[in-house]
Amino acid sequence: MNDPLARLYAPSWTLDLRGLKRAVDSETVSVNGGVDLSGVDFVTPGGMVGLSCLLEKWAAERGRVALVPPEDEVAGYMDRMDFFDLLGGVIAPTRSLSYLGGRGRHPASLCELRKVEDAGGVTHVVGRFRNILSEGGLRDEEVRYCCDVLSESLINVLEHAESPCGAYAAIQKWGRRNEVCVAVADAGLGIPRTIRHHPRARRVGGADHSLIEVATELNVSRIWEEGRGGGLNAALRSVGDGSGRLKIWAGRGWVEFWGVGSTHRAERVLAFEGTCVEAVFPLQQPCM
Amino acid sequence: MTAPSKPAVFEVLLRFPQCTSKEEPLATREDGQMELSCLEEALEAAAPGEVVGVDVSGVRFINYSFSDQVFGKLCGRLWAGEHPDRFIVLVAPRQDLENRLQDIPVTLKNRKLAMLCLADPEDPSTQEVVGELSKSLRETLRAVRPGDTNEELAERLDIKLTTCINRTDKLSRMRLLRKSERDRESGHRQFEFSPVLPFSE
What is the pTM assigned to this prediction? Predict the structure, then answer.
């Protein structure tokens, strides 16, 4: 993969949530063959957090996972996001990356990847991301939409997912497209398994994508207690208020939402052992 | 805990949050539980009949889970009869409750409960109800004059006495209305009702 000619003809791909799904499907990213990121030309929060959780899970099962890094520009960007530090204990890069030193340039002007393992971490990370987004020039309500998705998704991981590695959260602002993206993933039970026994889940059958849709309804929760089951619905409401879109990949379900009650699409895909949530919001004004 | 102050219409006015820095995002049920305990302590410390105001206008970020843990649970406990004869009122501008603080009314609606809210803590005429309250209960609440009995209120609203009793019972359980027992000279129990905040025409 380091041969310049091979690189020239290698298909490039974006490590976003959809790209990660395709990579798992094609075994570019697999538990046995390791992870080949040599063709990656761009990374997004959904791809980063999803891949981080897969790596954690596979490493727990079989030891360190071999990883072919992307070319320097993208690898430098991932290094700047602390990807290689956070995952240092679970990956075995096929080449040394110590020379990068976070120097890579990347079109995304604002980015952050963090690991969260307890409630204090949720408050810390949401506060940090909020400050980064505010300082990045987003309007107050745009920051609030992002923080709603981040905080409610992270709380769901801690309260329901039983994820051995906790959660990964990431944000990114795309200057050219004038959009902001937030994502959270875990390597736990996955949304469908957490609500499979809820009475409202029974009426939709057992398909994972249907169970994800049910999980976004009010009062549907793994914990049967009054007031529970509103977090994901609140996140979805923020997506609608902010004219954003939300993707959820959990188990064999893949669902895309455009706010509460709006058009969505569901399809059966390969299983993700855990849950990935990615939201993208358009920004009203071009900002720093 | 921030020292409580005493404005014109409340016995106590608390700045919210009490235990957490208001600069921090109010995002987890764990932090919400601490705030709930603080508010319940304040209610316990209040004398019977007193009103505790909770000023949420300085909150920068609060999500659904935190709101439910504090305001959803607190109103649920008041409805269940805890902290008898104590009242709690939110203080926040209306536009904040529709935007930045919107998860507070949402969590109340989700539990089919409601709270009184004042836009201006010095002006009872700025009060409104946030959360879930039916049109008939809102009409009944607006019609109550200090010292009204169910009979008087039923006559004013032109509704059956049993309907009126049901409505005043719900409103007083939600602590949107004061309920007290009248002297029993005639030998039967009779209740009278008053608005929670000073009455204004």
Answer: 0.91
